[in-house]
Amino acid sequence: MDGREGDPYAFLTVLSMALYQEHPSTQALTIPLFSKSRITSPSFRTTLHSFLDPNANASQHMGVALSERLINMPVQIVPHMYRMLVDEIKWAIDDTLTHLLFISRTYTLTQEVVQVFHSQPNPSSPKNKSKKLRSSLRSGAEGEDFGLELSTKVMLVPADKFEGLMRELGEVYVVGG
Question: Which InterPro entries match (predicted)?
Answer without folding.
Answer: BCP1_family
